[in-house]
Amino acid sequence: MSGQTIWDKLARMDRRVFYWILFICLTVPYMTPLGLPITVTPSTRSYYDGLKTIQPGEVVLLSINSGVSAWGDCLPAMVASVYQVHEQGGKLIVWSIGYNDCDITWARIKTLLATNVFTDWVEGEDYVYFGYCPGQETNVALLRDNIRGVYTKDVRGVATDDIPLMEDINDASKIKFVMSSDTGDAQIYYIRQWKNGPVNYVGSGQPPLVAEMGIAMNKSGDMVYYLSGDEFGLVAGSRGAAELEALVGLKGNATITMDSISVSHVLLVLAIILANVGMFATRGQKK
Amino acid sequence: MGVWIVLDTKFVALLLLIASFALFYAYMKLAQGGMKIKVRTFPAVAAIPEAIGRAAEMGKPVYYSTGLGQLTLNNQLNGPQTLAGISILGYTTRLCAKSGVKITYFTPIADSLPLVEETMRNAYLAEGKPEEFDPTTAINFQNEQSPYLTASLGWIQREKPASSILLGGFYYESVCIAEAGNIIGAMQIGGTANTHQLPFLVATCDYTLIMEELYAASAEISGNPDVLGSLKGEDLLKFLVLALLGIGFLLALIGNTSLIGLLRL
Amino acid sequence: MSQVYKRELVFIVTGVVALVMMLDYFFGKNIPGLSGSGGIAGQLQTWALIIQLMAIGLGAINLIQVHYRQISRKTDMAIYSIIFMVFFAFLLLLGLYKLFTGVELYPYTWVFANVYTSLGTTLYAITGFFVFSAAYRAFRARNVDAAILLIGGCFVLLANAPIGEVLWSGFPLIGNWFNNVGQIPGMRAFTVVGALGLLAYGFRALIGKEKGFYSEAS
Amino acid sequence: MIANVAAYPSDPLVILGIWVALFLMLAIYSYPLYKENPVYRFAEHIFVATALAIGIIVNLTSLRNSAWTPLVGGNYLLIIPIILGFCMYFLLIPKQRWVSRYPIAILVGSSLGLGIASNPLPSIITQVISTITAPKAGTAVWAWFPGSPTGDWFSFVFVAVGLICSMTYFLLTYEHTGPVKPVTIAGRYFIMLALGAYFGNTVLFRFSMLAERGQYILRVLGLVPY
User: Does residue C207 sit at the D interface (CB-CB below 8 Å)?
Assistant: First the structure.
């Protein structure tokens, strides 16, 4: 057809052109940071407020349910959270019910916080890392009642009974709250099995609260649980992590990534505008 | 031994569960007794024969997947979706067997393989062509999410299926597989009860089953009155929830919280 | 008779296991021997886990058959199937060595860190491309539905990106309203009807009416 | 304070590793950025093989911990699931295929039972309660976004009415005609709004993942701090 307008061409443009532009737009800002300011959203704020309530000696759980593959979106929030737990004088239990590559994730967190946190913390006393256990929700249900039944030893091979931090802890009731980093539904397993689960807790233990700091995609699905009070905080992806980094005062990868996010989002919005203008222009023509 | 029943929100959940089972059962009985139940038609289900017909015309295969399903049937959120997807797989395979279309099913769920193989084998058997079923071409297992995605992407580009059907517990693979299908111009039918993948299936597929429609679709395919009866019961439950919402809403407007108190116990 | 243990008994086992799980959830420790790590429910959960773990061999057999078939038929893809077989065998041996001796050889660690996790990350991120083109097509205001999708999406996009608030202070305000309020009715409806659908489906499966997945006409 | 303090690796094998990772990454991205090609196929098959081998080892390790060790330690009951697990493999014997249904029955029963029991509370009742909980007395009718999520009356009414409409849209045994029609149309709009917002959030997630890959290229090339 000879009478092709620019809009027809745009509508038929090879998607690979877009893909290339997108990839370049995401990459280049890392070399020339802009450093735009960001506002803290209420859900991140309440997550941070939750972290601030940790009293010295209280134990919280970091559940790494996101893999190495989700570092871009999930890792910064975990780093900032661990940093804040340390600042509060809290103690930390870490395990994973999601991914078998969690060892690499935990090693990376330790590398990034080597000078800030881990020069000070003693493994077994201030924090303990149990590694990965499969079984998903079934596993979460088992952990609720009997941690030793699932994790007989930590990754160093020390028996759980011999870990000072775990001395009084064998069920969910001794844990103040769960910080769940997710790419999937693990936070909902904790809500169902721990927070609302069968109350089998020995003594007068309270079911722990749950907080989510997963991928941004989870924000929509988790918002209903956040509003209904099942989650006390919600850190959504790298954007939420950038807010958290601002709150805890530790500039990390999320803050740096925000420039890429800005540029790529503007690109997408422009593409959408273009697509719509094109659609209306050609529609007018046909009439 | 402690107290058997604690009067809390969970007790309300139990009551809801019992009430819903009673409703399902009652309506299944009523349906068996001859009560006529009409289920809203799902365009996505009606499109399956069309999708197979298209493949037969073009002489191309059909891609079918039930999604990641968290890699096991033993998952409360995804297991039932996988099962619903396998139910519809049986129907689809029969259609394929009838019109001589090749169907390839991709899954990362090892423990569903016995069900899948039996379902597909029986579908071929029902069409009188048991010899045409070959598990090594009909079923393609991949151990994890990303390998399953890579293999699907590669297969779709190489084999260029005429139609692609994605029904089950999907995760991020949904948008990739659906876009890959889009690139080669396949007709696509999608459906999941995982809220996080709905936007993509709606955006990329020609027909979509949203949330419970996935569960209801297998009931519609079977056309069995008992099963349809349970859908009627489900609708009544929806009315119950709607009534709670409506009454609670009106009460809230006048500042009354008694319904909330009742639900919380 | 054979029908009984091939069919009915299977449904009964399904139903009984489900019932135990439900009793455990609602009555927990009040029924002796049901809950906790030693109880029936806990045992059954452990059993399910073990069965689930053991199933991977079935998948492996299928995958090896698929590739063996490709090699024996000498198709275009045969060379890749050979690559698959060789690499799989090599890595499996390394892994088995680790399993039996407890010593993780460096090649295994190296492949895990540089091939396995790296490809996983790459595949996980590939969605970015497809989301872009999907958005480009989906966000066209063809009708009212699509227009609403478009408005909701764009405001959230500009609220998420820090540049949005630089462009106009209203973007984060409106975008966050969509996030916190605007999307809630729809999301909540999904949550509620999804749960209702699951209830009905589960009930049918429990009483043996829903057995499409056992490849039987209901 | 800055959390990024990892140094560029110096071990040659590690450096080889990050370059191999980069090569494989570009091989996979050749699919969207160019087209399906032999290099992609190579990466695809390598990945499938790696994941299968690692998956088998991970599962065997878990089996040893959760089944074998307790079994030899005296928990003889665990022989049952192990036998059931082997029953799955009867799938491969044509005449005895039905045996594989029993382990499946346990999996299906367990997932359905837990799913049915644990879903109504957070997914139905809590959602209803949360919807009909009115803002505190004295809050503004129109606060747009006051910090607390459903803190104003407008949002409260919006959510309640929206939920009622969207749920009506899902009625299965009623055609969307007659008096229900306007309600279901409104419901469809509310659903579209939710899907749009979801899409927006997902874009953020997907782009930050892809950005991380871009950053990885720069890190390997030494253009930004490792």
Answer: no
Q: Is C195 helix (H, G, I), strand (E, B) or coil?
A: helix
Residue B260: predicted pLDDT? 85
In the numeric block, which tokens belong to residue B64? 């079918």
Structure tokens given for A90: 């809290």
Could you tell me which residues come within 8 angstroms of residue B128 by beta carbon, excluding any fewer than 6 positions away?
Answer: none
**Is residue C117 in some structural domain?**
no
For residue C121, being part of any structural domain is answered with no
Tokens of A75: 């890792």
Scanning C26-65 for CB atoms below 8 A from D yields 26, 43-61, 63
Could you tell me if residue D178 is inside a domain? yes
Structural domain boundaries, residue D171? 121-226
Query: What amino acid is encoded at D172 in this protein?
Result: L
Distances (CA, A) of C96 to C42, C56, C105: 30, 15, 11
Whether D202 maps to a domain, the answer reads yes
Contact yes or no for C52 and B111 at CB 8 A: yes
The one-letter amino acid at C186: G
Q: What is the DSSP string of chain A?
A: -TT--HHHHHHT--HHHHHHHHHHHHHGGGTS------PPPHHHHHHHHHHHTPPTT-EEEEEEES-GGGHHHHHHHHHHHHHHHHHHT-EEEEEESS-TTHHHHHHHHHHHTTTTTTTT--BTTTEEEEEE---HHHHHHHHHH-HHHH-SB-TT--BGGG-GGGTT--SGGG-SEEEEEESSSHHHHHIIIIISS----STTPPPPEEEE---TTHHHHHHHHHHTTSEEEE--HHHHHHHHHHHHT-B-HHHHHHHHHHHHHHHHHHHHHHHHHHHHHHHHHH-
- Which regions of chain B are under pLDDT 50? 1-2
Region C58-84: what's the mean pLDDT? 92
Model confidence at A208, pLDDT cuts 50, 70, 90, reads confident
* Number of domains within chain C: 1
- Residue D10 makes CB contacts below 8 A (sequence gap 6+) with none
Give yes or no for a contact between C213 and D191, defined as CB atoms under 8 angstroms apart.
no
Amino acid residing at B124: Y
Residue A24 has pLDDT above 60, yes or no: yes
**Phi then psi for D4, rounded to 5 degrees?**
-85, 100
**Does position C54 have pLDDT exceeding 60, yes or no?**
yes
CATH 1.25.40 fits A42-251, yes or no: no
Q: Which domain holds residue C93?
A: 2-105
Which C residues 79-138 touch B at CB under 8 Å? Answer: 119-120, 123-124, 126-127, 130-131, 133-135, 137-138
Q: What is the ipTM of this complex?
A: 0.88
Place of tokens 């033993």: B74
- What CATH code is assigned to B43-221? 3.40.50
CA distance A73 to chain D (A): 6
pLDDT at C67 over 90: yes
DSSP B171-238: -THHHHHHHHHHHTT-EEEEEES-GGGHHHHHHH-SEEEETHHHHHHHHHHH--HHHHHHHHHHHHHH
CB contact under 8 A, A138 and C49: yes
In the predicted structure, residue A186 carries a pLDDT above the cut 80: yes
Q: Nearest CA of chain B to the CA of A149: how many Å?
A: 20
* Model confidence at D146: pLDDT above 50: no
In chain D, the number of structural domains is 1
Q: Which residues of B touch A (CB under 8 A)?
A: 6, 10, 70, 72, 74-77, 146, 171, 183, 195-196
